[in-house]
Amino acid sequence: MEDYYKEQGLLQPHLPKIPAQRILAGQAALVTGANSGIGRAVAEALAEAGAHVAVNYVVGPESAEEAAKAARAFGVKAITVQADVSDEAQVQAMFRKVVAEFGALDILVNNAGLQADAAFDAMTLAQWNKVLGVNLTGQFLCAREAVRQFKLQGVRPELSCCAGKILCMSSVHETIPWAGHVNYAASKGGVMMMMKSISQEVAQHRIRVNAIAPGAIRTPINTQAWSTPEAYNALMKLVPYKRIGEAVEIGRAAVWLLSDYSDYVNGTTLFVDGGMTLYPGFEAGG
Ligand code: NAD
Fold this sequence. Notes:
The protein is an alpha/beta fold and 286 residues long. The protein has a single domain, classed as NAD(P)-binding Rossmann-like Domain (Rossmann fold), CATH 3.40.50.720. Helices cover 40% and strands 13% of the residues. The chain is built from 8 helices and 7 strands; from the N terminus they run αβαβαβαβαβαβααβ. Strands 3-2-1-4-5-6-7 form a 7-stranded parallel sheet, with helices on both faces. Helix 2 (37-48) packs across helix 8 (247-258) and helix 5 runs parallel beside helix 6 (182-202). It is globular and about 50 Å long. 43% of the residues are buried. Bound molecules: nicotinamide-adenine-dinucleotide. Nicotinamide-adenine-dinucleotide is lined by residues 32-33, 35-39, 56, 58, 84-86, 111-114, 134, 138, 169, 171, 214, 216-217, 219-222. Nicotinamide-adenine-dinucleotide (NAD) is lined by residues 32-33, 35-39, 56, 58, 84-86, 111-114, 134, 138, 169, 171, 214, 216-217, 219-222.
C-alpha cells in the first residue's frame, strides 16, 4: 500500500494498526469472491477476529489458496471452495462442503460481484444478465442457503446472541444512479431491497441481514479509476474525504457489522465511502 501512495506522490491514508479483538472467535464464515480485493480483505479481517473462513472463488485456485493461507496465519481454520454464485447447484454444493468442514455456518458475506459496462443503448442482454446473475441472483442463492442453515442451527449462545448473520456487499450505486453502468446500478439497487426484505422476514428467527455500501475502494474492479494521477484526481472530485478507500477498511466495518457489538442493527446499509453519497458537487456551497 505504501509503495502505491509514494509512486503517485499522494498523502497516505492514516490507517492505524488496531489491536485485533477476537470478537468472532469460533464462528464459521463463508465469504464469496474472496480471492481478490474486498472479499479477500474481509476474509482476513474475519480470521483476525477469530472466525474460521471458507474462501469462495470461481476462477483462480492459487489466489484462493493464498487468501486461505493469510487467514490461517491468524490461527483459524480456512478452506477454499469453488462455485459460481449464479449457479444454484454449485451454490448448494458449496454450502454442503462448508458445513461439512466446519460443522456449522454462522456468517455469510455475499461479496462476489462484477461489472460489464456499456452505453445503455449498446448494452447486450448478455451483459445485463451476467451482472444481474452474479450481483443479485448470486446473493439471493447464497442468502437462501444461509437462512436455511441458520434456521436449522438456531442460536448457539456460546458463539453469538443471534442464529446467523448475512452481510451483502452493495455499493454507493444502490442509491447513486450510474450512467454507462445501468446493469450494475440496477443490481445494487436490487441488493438493497432484497437485503431489507430478507431482514424483515427473518429477524424473528434472530437472523441479522445488513449491507455495506463501499464508495471508491482500491481493488482490481476499478483500476482505471485510480491507477494514473489524472484518473485519481478526477475521482477525488467525487470524494469529500479526498482519498480512495482501502479494502481493509471494508474488512474492519464488516467485523463490527457481523459481531454482537451490532446486535440491534437489522436491515441497514452502512456506507463506507469517504462521503461520496453526500452530494460532493455541493461541498463549496453549490
Ligand atoms: P474484485 O474484482 O477484486 O473482486 C470480485 C470478486 O468476485 C473476485 O474474486 C471475482 O472472481 C468474484 N466473482 C466474480 N464473479 C463470480 C462468480 N460468478 N462466482 C463467484 N465469485 C465471483 O472487486 P472488488 O472491488 O473486491 O468487489 C467486491 C464487491 O464489492 C463487489 O460486489 C463489488 O460490486 C463491490 N464494490 C466494490 C467497490 C470498489 O470500489 N472496489 C465499490 C462498491 C462496491
